[in-house]
Amino acid sequence: MIILEDKKIVSSKFHIENSHTLSVAKEHGTYSSIERLFTLSSEEIIAIIKESHLRGKGGGGAPAGNKWALMPLGELKPSFLAVNCDESEPGTFKDREIISKDPHLLIEGIICTCFAIKSHTAYIYVRGEYKEFSNILQSAIDEAYEAGYLGENIFNKGYKLDVIVHRGAGAYICGEKSALLESLEGKRGHPRVKPHQQECEWYFDNPTLVNNVETIASVPFIVKNGADAYKEFGTSSSPGTLLFAMSGHVNKPGVYESEFGICMMDYINHYGGGIKNGKKLKAIIPGGASTKILTADEVGLAKLDYETMKALGSSLGTGGMIVMDEDTNMVEALKNLLEFYHHESCGQCTPCREGTGWVDTIMQNLLDGVARGEDIEKILEISKTMNGQTICVFAPAVSDVIDGFITKFRSEFESYVREDLT
Amino acid sequence: MSLVTVNIDDKSYEAKENSLLIDLLILHDIKVPYFCYHESLGADGNCRMCMVEIEGKKRPQIACDTFVSDGMSIQTASEKISSVRKRILELELINHPVDCPICDQAGECKLQDYYMDFGLYDSNIDMKEKVHNKKHIALGSSVILDRERCVLCTRCVRFTSNITKSGELGVINRGDKACISTVPGMKLDNPYAMNVVDLCPVGALTSKEFRFAQRVWFLKSTPSICHGCSTGCNIFIDHNQEKYKEDKIYRIRPRKNREVNGDFICDYGRLSYKNLQENRQQELLNKSNVISYEDALLELNSKISGSKNIVILVDANLYNEDIAAISNFSQKIGAKLVCPTECYFDDSFGDDWLKSDYKCANLQAIKNYKIDSLFSSDQQIDLLINFNHPSFSKFSSKQSVEFSTHKGSSAELVLAIPAYSEYSGTTINDANIEQYSQKAITTDVATISEYLSDLSKVAL
Ligand SMILES: Cc1cc2nc3c(=O)[nH]c(=O)nc-3n(C[C@H](O)[C@H](O)[C@H](O)COP(=O)(O)O)c2cc1C
Ligand code: SF4
Ligand code: SF4
Ligand code: SF4
Ligand code: FES
């Protein structure tokens, strides 16, 4: 078995007792990027982030520096940072580790980011159910205010910064960046129609940057050590690390940071201790529920970086792997996921609102033994209608999930079909 | 803004650069199905029905979020587009009851039109599997919601949030359980509430007044001008004469006029049709006895000849043509012509949108003819001739004649005249726009012009 070397950027303090408190965090290096931060200009920081090729860790993998550069600096309007901690996708549970085990690292990242985009207010949008984690985060913020790291005049550098925790009400769709901002504005969490040009996000019509918790938590390392230090990890197009996670049929499920580019199987074996009960692997959903499932054969070829996963017709997503052993019933597994999507579609777009419910109904019929062969075709047809014709990528993702399961494990679905029905 | 040329289904069209493609399609009557877009509410992009194919784009695009540019090439009826639309429509129908035979909207329902177009008569899921929902919810005192028929286009919600800014409506729940609701503690009772009934593209919102009153395909729509206030909103009077019955108005609807009322009217104006057919004066009366038209004219003539000090009251709701005729007549008989306007003024009625403080349709004509709006006299009035002015009872005179649309006159001689919906004419609104109302309802009653011209023959 291959032994992997630990490469840690955001999880280096996770194992330390009381790492969530200011004194312990500081003792282990948190806030050490601040010194350098205030010697740099906005433009310089953005240039460093661009240079580092840091990619967004909320699922899309968009280059963070390019996004920051879309913020209209020097505008008369205030600018905002919204940190996305909605983390509601099945199989994805990494951001909660950061806010509960190293919240000061996130605060440090927020300070760096806000200084770069000239923002004086940051919101952290936390998944509603994360009450306990959110409390830990809030205590850390309180400590930071107390220490003068947040507030009117942070670190006595003449810069004002407020950080506000906002807990959502428990909707997966509020993780989508524009729905998140609608929700933050006090409205229903409906994704907005995409703009025609590349532009920043808007919070009450003010320029706003939305980044994932882990993206922001990666910033202090880069500010402190420079872009090249970050690029020493990972591959040339997927530099750095990711808090990959495993759930399902592995011996040691959990969150383990790793650099990009290693073989998926090596990761499963090294960190996850292999498949549970010595069973054979059947399939893995690689990057949170909304990425296309990979068969065991495909997993054999998979490397944990954006490019390889794309070449396999799936995507790296959030790096949250759902591992399924040989005994997994794929029909039940897909039904489980479709119940989630049926429940979570915001309901704006016709194809998604009606499609998610309809496929769920047909899947139930299949499991109940009252579906016919043409019903599988119907699911695929509905899935096609959901793909590429909606306001946000929720529906296309559901479509990918369905296609993956049915095309790769079709015989299992067909075994439920009853042709004798009239 | 410069003009560009775009190509739609292999024909060239001119359009303003960066204007919305869907507006262009609607303008040229190019068939495009849509639920959520509305010119007055803007694009929302939720129904996904307005798909078109644009050269150079891999996927179909929604026309309500496409801005035209020079040389753009668009297909609206390709096989690819038809099949996408058909599939989306099929999804739209999945939880819809398709109970058109008992739906008020039948005949003016977009969903019905579209599925007829696509031949999707039977929706694909058994009734038992449909998401069932409440079918009769009173949103306020005048609008009823049927949640099963709703296609969640959010036009009604956007009307209350963007136009009236009163925010009574919202969407609750998610996915296929999402539905329209009033905000807790609120009712849809703003002065413009009933516009949501017109906005609703399907039969989900109906008006309590009109529900089940008539099948829309029996109705005739006549363009007219609301006489509720001096804004002069453009309307359609929808009416029908059933066999052996009188021609009857069933509803008033807004008629688009960007300069005046856009797509909307107020509920007061919308419901004003009731007053047009209730308690109407039909006969000619002399001291409460029915008399013939000829006798009435003779009686009027003799009253005029025997009086010295004559005052004429004219209502600021009459058409320009009436006011001109009355003004002429007044000069001829040497009468004093007045129109006290204070009785029309009601600043609790007016607002900063459509409703104006003056509840009469033709105040501007009264001003143009320089008709006095104040009247005082110490002299005893010998004869008072009222042309439907509401303040008649405030004046005392030796003798009185009233041309009246409604019953209840105390004049000795009462002459029935038609309401504005019963003959044609023009009015001038408070923005000085002259507008034409067409005769909607037929009546045997003579108009003011007819009376006056026949009177001059008698007088000869
Ligand atoms: C349905 C849906 C749910 C999402 N949920 C999350 C989430 O929980 N957390 C997150 O960071 N990004 C989520 N995203 C992605 C965000 O829209 C956005 O791209 C991201 O927050 C940007 O941050 P990043 O560039 O740092 O990754 C979601 C996207 C979609 C379409
Ligand atoms: S695709 Fe689904 S989740 Fe996204 S906006 Fe449309 S209905 Fe909402
Ligand atoms: S009630 Fe009518 S207008 Fe309102 S969302 Fe439903 S279909 Fe649209
Ligand atoms: S605003 Fe005035 S003119 Fe317009 S509908 Fe209402 S009453 Fe009639
Ligand atoms: S009209 Fe374009 S999406 Fe509804």
Can you list the ligands bound to this structure? flavin mononucleotide, iron/sulfur cluster, FE2/S2 (inorganic) cluster
Distance between the termini of chain A: 54 Å
> What is the CA-based Rg of chain A, rounded?
22 Å
Query: What does the main sheet of chain A amount to?
Result: 6 strands, mixed
- Put simply, the count of helices of chain A is 18
Low-confidence stretches of chain A: none
> Strand order, biggest sheet of chain B?
15-14-20-19-18-16-17
Order of helices and strands of chain A: HHHHEHHEHEEHEEHHEEHEEHHEHHHHH
Classified in CATH, the superfamily of the largest domain in chain A is NADH-ubiquinone oxidoreductase 51kDa subunit
Shape of chain A: globular
CATH architecture of the largest domain in chain B: 3-Layer(aba) Sandwich
The fold-level CATH name of the largest domain in chain B is: Rossmann fold
Give the total of beta strands of chain B: 22
Q: Could you say what the CATH architecture of the largest domain in chain A is?
A: 3-Layer(aba) Sandwich
Number of strands of chain A: 11
Instruction: Give the overall average pLDDT of chain B.
Output: 93
Q: Would you identify the regions of chain B where 5 or more consecutive residues have pLDDT less than 50? A: none
Helix content range of the residues of chain B, please?
10-25%
CATH class assignment of the largest domain in chain A: Alpha Beta
Number of structural domains of chain A: 3
Structural class of chain B: alpha+beta
